[in-house]
Amino acid sequence: MTKFKQTIIAAILTGSFALTPSVSAKPTRGIEVAPNVVQTGNKVGDLQYWDGTKWVLIPSKLTATENSIAPTFALCAGVPTWILYSCPGTPPYEIGETGPAGGRVFHISDGGLHGLEAAPVDLPLATWGCAGVAITKANGFALGTGLANTTAAIAGCKETGTATKLADDYVFNGYSDWYLPSNDELTAMYAKIGPSAPAPLTNVGGFALNGYWSSTEIGANHAWTLFFGNGSQSFGIKLNPSSLRAIRSF
Question: Where are the domains of the chain?
Answer without folding.
Answer: 2-83, 123-249
